[in-house]
């Protein structure tokens, strides 16, 4: 017969999970002690078999209960031992957690796109490596056109070039889209400029293009006034200065009241009180005609700006280099979203 007392004693003395598991297998496993008794039941007379069976089942339940309690006790003592060894001080301050955030330039670009999206513009992108056709010819600058000098261009060995502005995206949109067109094109641009405080060989442009029946300069003015106020504050004043770009007619530079001196005159605005923020104009009929858009029915405007310049004016950043340096002392100044 099973010596239950002895078994309980053995279980009680087990002090590791390994030891306990070995005992469990020996007692309750398929080849275990209890099973061998259960197998022998069939040799007993019926009435004894029933009684004995019940007894064995009770023993089995009891042993299972003892073992699970013992496992719990061993685990608890192991945990206490570990806690004693690696003591935790809940009053220590936690390690600082550095959470990444979007680069200030990207945030400014997103804000510009967001403002224009509210007016129904759709954001599109295009390739950085372009052909002469998209970068110049289609924009009313045939070969040897003097205006090409305005863009010092990086040419590639395969005859292509690095786009000098995002305007090629406008041409691609005119080719692909059905009219009307209302897009924002943004991305990296490249020019062989000598680097200085406001010029870098790599910079970001954002442009908008709107072509529909009856689009006029008044629409352009309204759009840019809304844009300037959304970016630089409700009271912002906007000035249009006649200017030349080959792909628009008429063309204009757009200036806002100096955000640094509020129009009184300072070094940033060269004492004029105004800051030019973007170039704009009515899309040149030549450009429309090239894309088979009937300029007698359709008209449109375009405007474009350097994202770095806008960010520099919004945050008083004094050198374009800071955007590329990845200096955390600079980047960490801009901890919050622009909408905050
Ligand atoms: Zn100023």
Residues in helix, %: 40-55%
Q: What's the story with the biggest beta sheet?
A: 7 strands, mixed
CA radius of gyration: 39 Å
Mean pLDDT: 90
CATH homology-level superfamily of the largest domain: Bira Bifunctional Protein, Domain 2
Bound molecules: zinc ion
What CATH architecture label of the largest domain applies?
A: 2-Layer Sandwich
Number of helices: 12
Cofactor: Mg(2+)
InterPro entries: aa-tRNA-synth_II, aa-tRNA-synth_II/BPL/LPL, Phe-tRNA-synth_IIc_asu, Phe-tRNA_ligase_II_N, Phe_tRNA_ligase_alpha1_bac, Phenylalanyl-tRNA_Synthase, tRNA-bd_arm
GO molecular function: ATP binding; magnesium ion binding; phenylalanine-tRNA ligase activity; tRNA binding
EC number: 6.1.1.20
Structure described in brief:
This protein is of the alpha+beta class and 340 residues long. 40% of the residues lie in helices and 19% in strands.
Explain this structure.
The chain is of the alpha+beta class. The chain folds into two domains: 4-85; 105-331, Bira Bifunctional Protein, Domain 2 (BirA Bifunctional Protein, domain 2). It has helices spanning 4-13, 17-28, 33-40, 46-85, 104-117, 132-135, 167-176, 217-232, 285-290, 307-315, 322-325, 328-331; strands spanning 122-124, 129-130, 161-162, 181-190, 202-213, 238-243, 248-257, 274-283, 298-306. The protein has a seven-stranded mixed beta sheet, sandwiched between helices. A two-stranded antiparallel sheet has the order 2-3. The protein is elongated, with a radius of gyration of 39 Å. Residues 258, 260-261, 265-266, 268-269 line the site of zinc ion.
């Amino acid at each position: 017969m099973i010596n239950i007392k002895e078994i309980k004693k053995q279980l009680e003395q087990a002090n590791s999970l390994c030891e306990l598991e070995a005992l469990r297998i020996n007692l309750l496993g398929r080849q275990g002690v209890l099973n061998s008794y259960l197998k022998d039941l069939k040799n007993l007379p019926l009435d004894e078999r029933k009684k004995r069976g019940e007894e064995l089942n009770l023993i089995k339940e009891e042993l299972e209960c003892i073992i699970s309690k013992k496992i719990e006790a061993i685990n608890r003592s192991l945990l206490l031992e570990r806690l004693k060894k690696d003591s935790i001080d809940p009053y220590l301050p936690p390690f600082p957690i550095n959470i990444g955030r979007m680069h200030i330039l990207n945030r400014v670009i997103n804000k510009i796109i967001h403002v224009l999206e509210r007016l129904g513009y759709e954001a599109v992108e295009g390739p950085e490596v372009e052909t002469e056709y998209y970068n110049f010819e289609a924009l009313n600058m045939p070969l040897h056109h003097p205006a090409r000098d305005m863009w010092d261009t990086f040419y590639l060995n395969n005859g292509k070039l690095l786009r000098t502005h995002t305007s090629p995206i406008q041409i691609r949109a005119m080719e692909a889209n059905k009219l009307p067109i209302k897009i924002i094109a943004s991305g990296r641009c490249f020019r062989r400029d000598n680097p200085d405080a406001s010029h870098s060989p790599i910079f970001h442009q954002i442009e908008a293009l709107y072509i529909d029946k009856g689009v006029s300069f008044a629409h352009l003015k309204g759009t840019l006034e809304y844009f300037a106020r959304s970016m630089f504050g409700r009271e912002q004043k906007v000035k249009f200065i006649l200017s030349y770009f080959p792909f628009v007619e008429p063309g204009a530079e757009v200036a806002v009241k100096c955000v640094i001196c509020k129009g009184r005159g300072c070094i940033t605005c060269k004492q004029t009180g105004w800051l030019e923020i973007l170039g704009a104009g009515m899309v040149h009929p030549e450009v429309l005609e090239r894309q088979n858009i009937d300029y007698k029915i359709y008209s449109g405007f375009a405007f474009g700006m350097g994202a770095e310049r806008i960010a520099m004016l919004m945050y008083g950043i004094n050198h374009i280099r800071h955007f590329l340096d990845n200096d955390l002392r600079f980047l960490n100044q801009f901890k919050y979203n622009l909408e905050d």
